[in-house]
Every structure is written in structure tokens, then in C-alpha cells.
Amino acid sequence: MTYDFETMLERHGKDAIAVDALGISGHAPQPPKEGFDFIPMWVADMNFATAPSIQDAVIERVKHPAFGYFKPTEEYFDSIIDWHKRRNHRTDLTKDMIGYENGVLGGVMSALKALCPQGGPVLIHEPTYIGFTGVLTNAGYDAIHSPLIRDNGTWEMDYEDMEQKIIDHKIHTAIVCNPHNPCGRAWTKDELAKMMDIFERHQVWVISDEIWSDLMMNKHTYVPTQEVNDYAKMHTIAFYAPSKTFNLAGLIGSYHIVYNEWLKDQVQLASSISHYNDMNVLSMHALIGAYRDEGHVWVDELCEVLSNNINLACDFFTNVEGVTVTRPEATYMMLLDCEGFVKAHHMSMDELLKAGWDVGVGWQDGRPFFAPYGIRMNFAVPTHKVQEALERLKTYVFKD
Questions:
Q1: Given CA atoms 84, 86, 87, 88 in this order, what sign does their dihedral have?
Q2: Of 291, 315, 350, at which residue does a domain stop?
Q3: Contacts of 57 (CB under 8 A, 6+ apart)
């Protein structure tokens, strides 16, 4: 390994809700009992030092003592185009197809404003990323959930259910998560094509969150939604960011890719209304640093470490009676289904969650993701901390 993924960063007091929000945030774990240190495995950020090329780029820019108004540089756009060409084999991207967003969720909101009247129905898969639920609820949209099916050890779309709900609710906008969070599916081209066939039949526009696309586990392949067919290319707005890949959420900054000129204009108009959807100059340089050659190497090594952590966790939970786990193909998150365990032990989900928190395993309640017996876990921590967390669960929580 060229880069260090085994040192556990000390993040206390360094602006990290992952360790400083215990017992405060509505969805945060409770602090552990005395004698146990806390292992942050809940909020979706990483406990690794980011790629050094990012710090280098930001520090170099900070050396110049002026931070006035600016415009994104050609290097910014070229970096995005080169990243997708090298990693995703996309050769048709141009500067005009790329637009800035303060964040993926903000971009989703802009896209919804452009495509769906307030209060209108929006198709979305379940389990559902909590951020999508917040956006749809706060803005007054009607979220129509199509549950994913767990079959043969994987999560699959229920195409019949999707189409029937599109018909019944007269839906013309869908939110897609590719790869899926929190289930970890890396949708195949055939799956995406079958989905897009349904959308084409009923003229459904697609808002696709592809922020996890760089984090593929065990050599699985990411398929950009827009690359599936012509309808997908012209009816999808796709959102990306280096924030999830390189742990840069605190810097703010994402971008969209749109091929359709009309759609691009409508989304940019919606995002401009607040007069606050503007890039931070340091975020621009962070992206440029992330997408350099060093960043490619860093991500490749990161995915090896994450794949190993995911495999260790799957091997462990597969042997816990009453817990069902599907091996994530992407993301560093895992969604456990603990229905069998809590029922067999006559306990509640609150009691199970607290049992983990008490011994410092900072896992996350899955119920806000529409997983009634779910626990969401983040394995972007050094492998030795993953092993320690699993050992604590074996000794103190899943001990029967």
C-alpha cells in the first residue's frame, strides 16, 4: 500500500459529528459505557486520512492571500472529464454538460423543482436514504415507495411494483440511487435497462444520485445510468461529488452531468433561485487535487481495504443466527436485518442498538431508512478496528 489506511485518526475536536455528536444528534449513537472507546460506524464518512494530493492543492491555493470572486477554471472541468474517462470509460463528456451543486441533496431539490410540481408524486426505492426522505418531506413532495426485494442473497428491483405505482399515481419523476445506499447494490446494465424501459413507456424523468460510484467492492463494476440507452442519456440528471470518495463533505461541493439541453437549463434555473448555489474556491482546488493521478491510486487502494472489511463483516454476520446480511457490491455501508434475532431474544430494536452502543460499537438505527429491523454500519475504518468491533459484538451482543 502506498497510503496509510491502518491508522485510526483522532477526530475529536476536529469538526467531526461522527465522534463529537454522540447523544446529541437525533440519529447519533449514545456514548459507550465506561471502559470502552467509541468506534464510529454510523454516519457515512471515513476514518482515514484523505489523499495527500488534496491537501497539497488546497494548501498551495491558501498560500495566495486573496479569496475574492472567481469562476471555475478550465482545470476544474478538465479534471472531472478526465476522471470519468479514466474510471468509467465515458468519452463524450464536455464542459457544457457539467454544472455545480452545493451538494447532491441540493441538486436533487433543484431537479425536483424543475421536473415535478410541489406535492407531486415521486417514485423512490425502499430502503431509502434518509437524505432523500428529508428532501421530499421538507419540500412537500409525495414519496411513493417501491420496496426492493431481497432474493438469493442480493437486493433486486421489483419491476412490476414500480410500473404499477407509476400508473396508479401518474408518476413522471423518479429518484434512483446508483449504487444504492443503504443496500449497497451496484445495479447491472441489464437491471438499469429494464428500469429505463419502464420509465420510457411512461415518460418518467430520472434524478440519479451516483455519489458512491467510485467505491466499488470486490471488483464489481459501476454502470452510469446515463450510459444505458438513449432515453436514459436524455432523461436523466446524474449527481456526483468527490466528497464521498475522498471524505470531503465538510468542504461542500458536488456537480451534475446533464446531456439534455432543456433539462440542463431548467435545473440551472431552479438552482439559481436561492442565489446561494455557488462554489467555494477551496472546494474547487480540493476536487482538482482529488482527481489527479495520486487520487486514482488512493481510491484503488481504498477499495481494496474496504472490500476486505466488508468481507470480514459478512463472514461474521452470516454466522449470527437471526441476522440477515447481503454483501454490498458498492459503498462502505452495510444494512443488517435483525428481525430474527430480536424476536428470538424477546428484545426491541432499541435494546439491540443500545447493546452495541454500550460497548462502543457506533452502529446506526436503520428504521429511518424504512428498514424496520435494520441496523446500518459503516466499515470505512481501519481493519483492526473492524475486527475489534466484531469481537465486541460477538462477546457482548450476539453472545447466545
A1: positive
A2: 291
A3: 285, 286, 288, 289, 292
3 state DSSP class of 385? helix
pLDDT in tens, the chain (400 residues): 899 999 999 999 999 999 999 988 678 999 999 999 999 999 999 999 999 999 999 999 999 999 999 999 999 999 999 999 999 999 999 999 999 999 999 999 999 999 999 999 999 999 999 999 999 999 999 999 999 999 888 999 999 999 999 999 999 999 999 999 999 999 999 999 999 999 999 999 999 999 999 999 999 999 999 999 999 999 999 999 999 999 999 999 999 999 999 999 999 999 998 888 889 999 999 999 999 999 999 999 999 999 999 999 999 999 999 999 999 999 999 999 999 999 999 999 999 999 999 999 999 999 999 999 999 999 999 999 999 999 999 999 998 7
Copy the grid coordinates of residue 357: 452502543
Q: Given 291, 312, 330, which residue is the final one in a domain? A: 291
Residues 127 and 229 in one domain: yes
Domain assignment of residue 301, given as a range: 17-51+295-397
**In this structure, are 113 and 190 located in the same domain?**
yes
Does residue 180 fall inside a structural domain?
yes
Q: At 386, is the secondary structure helix, strand, or coil? A: helix
161 with 238, same domain: the answer is yes
Query: Which grid cell is 338?
Result: 435483525
60 domain residue, yes or no:
no
Give the separation between CA 374 and CA 176, rounded to whole angstroms: 21
- Which CATH number belongs to the domain containing residue 378 in this structure? 3.90.1150.10
CA of 284: how far to CAs of 57, 69, 297, in Å?
A: 10, 13, 20
